[in-house]
Amino acid sequence: MIYLHLFWVFFKIGLFGFGGGMAMISMIRMEVVDNYNWLSANEFTDLLAISQMTPGPISINTATFVGHTQAGILGSAIATFALCLPSILLMIAVLLLFFKHKDSPYVKKTMDFLLPVISGLIIAAAILMCDANSFATPISLLIFGFSLTAHYFYKVNPIVLIVISGVVGYISM
C-alpha cells in the first residue's frame, strides 16, 4: 500500500508542480510533512538542505529520499518515477500541440498567466522555510544576509556560497 501512496503523492506533485523543483517545495512539504507525516518539519528542512547540495533537481532528490525512508530502494524508484512521469507525458503532449499552435493568442495568453503562479509557489516555499526552528537563529540570519549580499551584489558562485554556508553552519553547531 505504501508504494501506491508514494506513487500517487509524487505523481500529483509532478502533475501540478509547474515552475521546477523550487516551486514544488511547498507542495512536497504539505504532502510529506502535513498530510502523511512521513517526515517531521525539521527532517524536511534538513532534507532540503541536503537536496540542494547534491547534484540533480531538488524535487527529484527529495522524492528519492522520501521514497527510500518509507519503502527502501523500490520506494525511491517509485517516488522518483512518479514525480517524473507527468512531466514526460505532458512534455510530449505540449510539444506536439505547441508546435502546431504556437502563434495562437490563447497559447500566448496561457504562458503569460503561468509566470505569476510559478513566482507565488517559489515565494510560498520560502515563507514555509522561515519558521522559528529552522531560520530565526542569529547564525542562520547571518548566513542568509552574507549569502544574499555576496550573490546579488558580488555575483559569488552559488556553489561557493553553499560550501561556505555549510561549513559555517557545521562549525556553529
Main attributes of the structure:
mainly alpha; 7 helices; 173 residues; 83% helix
Low-confidence residue ranges? none
| Helix-strand topology string | HHHHHHH
Radius of gyration: 18 Å
- Arithmetic mean of pLDDT: 88
- Give the helix proportion (percent range): over 70%
What distance lies between the first and last C-alpha atoms, to the nearest angstrom? Answer: 39 Å
Beta-strand proportion: under 5%
Number of strands: 0
Structural class: mainly alpha
Largest sheet: none
Shape: globular
Can you count the helices?
A: 7
In summary, what is this structure?
The chain is mainly α and 173 residues long. It is built from seven helices and no strands. The longest helix is centred in the middle third of the chain and has 44 residues, at 58-101.
Question: Could you please describe the fold and organization of this structure?
Answer:
The protein is built from seven helices and no strands. The radius of gyration is 18 Å and the shape is globular. The mean pLDDT is 88. It has 173 residues and is an all-alpha fold.
